[in-house]
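Marked as duplicate of an earlier ticket. Keeping the data here for the record.
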Amino acid sequence: MTKPMNYVLGALGACLLAVGVAQAGTVNEDHGIAIKGYDPVAYFTDNKPVKGSTAHRFAYEGATYEFASAAHRKLFAADPEKYVPQFGGFCAYGTATGHKAVIDPAAFTIVDGKLYLNYNTKVRDKWQQDEPGYIQKAKDAWPTVSQQTDVHQ
Protein backbone atom coordinates (compact mmCIF):
# COMPACT_ATOMS: atom_id res chain seq x y z
CA MET A 1 0.00 0.00 0.00
CA THR A 2 1.32 3.44 -0.83
CA LYS A 3 2.13 6.00 1.80
CA PRO A 4 -0.72 8.39 0.80
CA MET A 5 -3.20 5.50 0.90
CA ASN A 6 -2.02 4.55 4.41
CA TYR A 7 -2.49 8.16 5.46
CA VAL A 8 -6.03 8.29 4.01
CA LEU A 9 -7.04 5.02 5.65
CA GLY A 10 -5.53 6.11 8.96
CA ALA A 11 -7.38 9.44 8.84
CA LEU A 12 -10.61 7.66 7.92
CA GLY A 13 -10.19 5.30 10.88
CA ALA A 14 -9.56 8.24 13.23
CA CYS A 15 -12.70 9.98 11.96
CA LEU A 16 -14.81 6.86 12.44
CA LEU A 17 -13.39 6.43 15.95
CA ALA A 18 -14.15 10.07 16.77
CA VAL A 19 -17.75 9.67 15.60
CA GLY A 20 -18.15 6.53 17.70
CA VAL A 21 -16.77 8.24 20.80
CA ALA A 22 -18.98 11.30 20.32
CA GLN A 23 -22.10 9.15 20.26
CA ALA A 24 -21.09 6.57 22.89
CA GLY A 25 -23.44 6.60 25.81
CA THR A 26 -25.78 9.38 24.69
CA VAL A 27 -28.69 6.97 24.09
CA ASN A 28 -29.86 4.48 26.69
CA GLU A 29 -29.69 1.21 24.80
CA ASP A 30 -28.91 -2.41 25.46
CA HIS A 31 -27.23 -4.25 22.59
CA GLY A 32 -28.34 -1.42 20.33
CA ILE A 33 -32.02 -1.56 21.35
CA ALA A 34 -33.51 1.59 22.92
CA ILE A 35 -36.12 1.70 25.72
CA LYS A 36 -35.62 -1.99 26.49
CA GLY A 37 -37.50 -2.79 23.28
CA TYR A 38 -40.62 -0.80 24.14
CA ASP A 39 -42.51 1.14 21.49
CA PRO A 40 -41.98 4.91 21.99
CA VAL A 41 -45.08 5.79 19.96
CA ALA A 42 -47.34 3.65 22.17
CA TYR A 43 -46.68 5.95 25.14
CA PHE A 44 -48.49 8.66 23.18
CA THR A 45 -51.17 6.61 21.39
CA ASP A 46 -51.99 4.04 24.11
CA ASN A 47 -50.79 5.98 27.18
CA LYS A 48 -48.92 2.90 28.38
CA PRO A 49 -45.74 0.97 27.66
CA VAL A 50 -46.15 -1.61 24.90
CA LYS A 51 -43.41 -4.03 23.94
CA GLY A 52 -42.16 -3.53 20.40
CA SER A 53 -41.45 -6.24 17.86
CA THR A 54 -38.26 -7.13 16.02
CA ALA A 55 -40.44 -7.12 12.88
CA HIS A 56 -40.91 -3.34 13.18
CA ARG A 57 -37.60 -1.57 13.77
CA PHE A 58 -36.19 1.84 13.00
CA ALA A 59 -32.63 3.08 13.61
CA TYR A 60 -32.25 6.62 14.91
CA GLU A 61 -29.24 8.41 16.42
CA GLY A 62 -27.23 5.28 17.06
CA ALA A 63 -29.99 3.12 18.55
CA THR A 64 -32.69 0.86 17.20
CA TYR A 65 -36.27 1.41 18.30
CA GLU A 66 -38.84 -1.36 18.14
CA PHE A 67 -42.54 -0.83 17.49
CA ALA A 68 -45.72 -2.79 18.13
CA SER A 69 -46.94 -2.16 14.58
CA ALA A 70 -45.90 -0.93 11.16
CA ALA A 71 -48.18 2.08 11.69
CA HIS A 72 -46.25 3.10 14.84
CA ARG A 73 -42.95 2.65 13.00
CA LYS A 74 -44.24 4.90 10.21
CA LEU A 75 -45.30 7.61 12.69
CA PHE A 76 -41.89 7.51 14.35
CA ALA A 77 -39.97 7.57 11.06
CA ALA A 78 -41.91 10.68 9.97
CA ASP A 79 -41.03 12.64 13.14
CA PRO A 80 -38.61 10.87 15.52
CA GLU A 81 -38.08 13.93 17.72
CA LYS A 82 -41.76 13.88 18.60
CA TYR A 83 -41.45 10.40 20.11
CA VAL A 84 -37.92 9.80 21.39
CA PRO A 85 -37.61 9.94 25.16
CA GLN A 86 -35.84 12.97 26.56
CA PHE A 87 -32.26 12.81 27.84
CA GLY A 88 -31.36 9.88 25.63
CA GLY A 89 -33.92 7.67 27.34
CA PHE A 90 -32.05 7.68 30.64
CA CYS A 91 -33.92 8.35 33.87
CA ALA A 92 -35.03 11.98 33.71
CA TYR A 93 -34.85 12.40 37.50
CA GLY A 94 -31.36 10.88 37.52
CA THR A 95 -30.32 13.34 34.83
CA ALA A 96 -31.74 16.22 36.90
CA THR A 97 -29.66 15.05 39.87
CA GLY A 98 -26.49 14.72 37.80
CA HIS A 99 -26.15 11.09 36.73
CA LYS A 100 -27.29 8.52 34.19
CA ALA A 101 -29.61 5.82 35.48
CA VAL A 102 -31.45 2.89 33.91
CA ILE A 103 -35.21 3.05 33.45
CA ASP A 104 -38.33 1.01 34.03
CA PRO A 105 -40.44 1.38 30.86
CA ALA A 106 -43.57 1.50 33.05
CA ALA A 107 -42.28 4.58 34.93
CA PHE A 108 -43.05 7.32 32.43
CA THR A 109 -44.72 10.69 32.07
CA ILE A 110 -45.56 12.85 29.10
CA VAL A 111 -45.17 16.56 29.74
CA ASP A 112 -45.87 19.15 27.06
CA GLY A 113 -45.74 16.46 24.38
CA LYS A 114 -42.37 15.05 25.51
CA LEU A 115 -41.69 11.57 26.88
CA TYR A 116 -39.77 11.27 30.16
CA LEU A 117 -38.70 7.91 31.58
CA ASN A 118 -37.71 7.19 35.17
CA TYR A 119 -35.81 4.57 37.14
CA ASN A 120 -38.98 3.14 38.73
CA THR A 121 -42.47 4.30 39.74
CA LYS A 122 -41.26 5.55 43.14
CA VAL A 123 -38.74 7.83 41.42
CA ARG A 124 -41.42 8.86 38.92
CA ASP A 125 -43.66 9.90 41.82
CA LYS A 126 -40.83 12.09 43.17
CA TRP A 127 -40.27 13.49 39.65
CA GLN A 128 -43.95 14.41 39.37
CA GLN A 129 -43.78 16.53 42.54
CA ASP A 130 -41.92 19.23 40.56
CA GLU A 131 -41.86 18.29 36.87
CA PRO A 132 -41.09 21.80 35.58
CA GLY A 133 -38.22 22.21 38.06
CA TYR A 134 -36.74 18.77 37.38
CA ILE A 135 -37.10 19.22 33.62
CA GLN A 136 -35.12 22.46 33.78
CA LYS A 137 -32.47 20.89 36.04
CA ALA A 138 -32.18 17.93 33.66
CA LYS A 139 -31.88 20.22 30.62
CA ASP A 140 -29.12 22.14 32.38
CA ALA A 141 -27.32 18.96 33.46
CA TRP A 142 -27.70 16.94 30.24
CA PRO A 143 -24.63 18.35 28.39
CA THR A 144 -22.43 17.07 31.23
CA VAL A 145 -24.44 13.97 32.15
CA SER A 146 -24.60 12.83 28.52
CA GLN A 147 -20.81 12.47 28.54
CA GLN A 148 -20.75 10.15 31.56
CA THR A 149 -19.78 6.58 30.81
CA ASP A 150 -21.19 4.94 33.94
CA VAL A 151 -24.89 4.23 34.40
CA HIS A 152 -26.48 3.72 37.81
CA GLN A 153 -28.29 0.43 37.97
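See parent ticket for discussion. The radius of gyration is 18 Å.
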